[in-house]
Each structure stands twice: as C-alpha cells, then as structure tokens.
Amino acid sequence: MRKTNRLAWLLGIFGTLTFIIGMCLMVYSATIIISDAPLKCTPTPADSLGPFYVPDAPVRAKVGEGYVLSGTVRSAVDCAAVNGAKIEFWLAGPSDSYDEDHRATLFADGSGNYRFESNFPPGYGNRSPHIHLRVSAVGFNTLVTQHYLEAGTSGASFDLVLLPAR
Predict the structure, then answer these.
(1) pLDDT band, residue 12 (cuts 50/70/90)
(2) Backbone angles phi, psi at 3, to 5 degrees
(3) Alpha carbon of 133 to those of 54, 75, 94, 116, 145: distances in Å?
(4) Separation of CA 120 from chain center
(5) Given the DSSP bridges, would you call strands 67-75 and 160-162 parallel, antiparallel or unpaired?
(6) Coil, helix or strand for 8?
C-alpha cells in the first residue's frame, strides 16, 4: 500500500469514528434539550472536524468559483433565524490539498442568511467531495458539520440548525 493511500485510509477511518462520536453526542444533547422544550426544527447533524481545521480564516465569502452554497442559520427551538452567526469554511482546492486560499469565515446577515462561493472540491481517498463548516453563535452550541456535494451541481441550499447552549 502506497504511503498516500495509507494516509487516505487512516483519514477515512478517523473521519468515520469522529462522525459516529459526534452523532452520539448530538443525540445525547438533543435528548437533554427535548426534555426541557420541544424542538420545532431538526438540528443539523454534526460531522467530523477532520484534521485540517485551522482557526482564524480570513473574512470572505468567496474562495473560488463554480459552486455556491447558501442557506439560513436557524435555532432548533423555534426555527428563528440566528443573526450574525459565525460560519467557518474549509475545503480542498483544485490541487487536492487544503490550503489558506480555500478557507473562509463569514457571518450570517440579519435574516440568518449566508452565501459562500468556492470551487467544486475534489474527492480524495474514500471521501466524497465535501465542504467543512464550523458554526458558532452566542447562546448556541458550536456546530461542526460537512456539506457533501452532488456530482454535476453548481450549488446547493444548506440550512444550519443550531441547538441552544445549556
């Protein structure tokens, strides 16, 4: 097995385990919150942070062109828009690697809406093309998730539903 294939395999295993742990934590958190107040919107499932997250990405809404991801950040409690939520993005660039040119931070507008433009990220190893997101807002648990792109598309709508902080 080549060294790059071994690394891709290990990253795939790490991502799968992180996803399973994240889902268990999300279900546990949702169970606690549901016992206090019913949720009107289904929380966005957590997914792997992955090994390539770097904080403090530049504030910008575009890191390439050809794919637009947009949506609304909402509260799981009442589906209300979350104004000013911080959304961090990172993805592999056309050269199949993560770099500073493919990281961004933006903030949801007054209606909770966001729009992010990038290249269509390549898949690597056993991973489908994806964009990582980390969403934080005052009064809510930080959400780490991923958006999986469908081949042949130039964009998608992806609402981000946050659980309130305890």
Answers:
(1) low
(2) -60, -40
(3) 12, 17, 18, 11, 5
(4) 15
(5) parallel
(6) helix
Which of 159, 140, 142, 158 has its CA nearest to residue 77? 140
Q: Is the pLDDT of residue 16 over 50?
A: no
User: What average pLDDT does the segment 65-93 reach?
Assistant: 97
The dihedral through the CA atoms of 139, 110, 91, 129 has a sign that is: positive
- Three-state SS at 84: coil
pTM (predicted TM-score) = 0.78
Provide the 10 A C-beta neighbour count for residue 38: 10
Judged against a pLDDT cut of 90, whether residue 136 lies above it is answered with yes
Can you point out the beta strands (E) in the chain? Answer: 67-75, 86-92, 98-107, 113-118, 130-136, 143-148, 155-157, 160-162
Q: Which domains does the chain have, with CATH numbers?
A: 3-162 (2.60.130.10)
* Backbone phi and psi for residue 68, each to the nearest 5 degrees, phi listed first: -115, 125
What six digits make up the tokens of 140? 């809510």
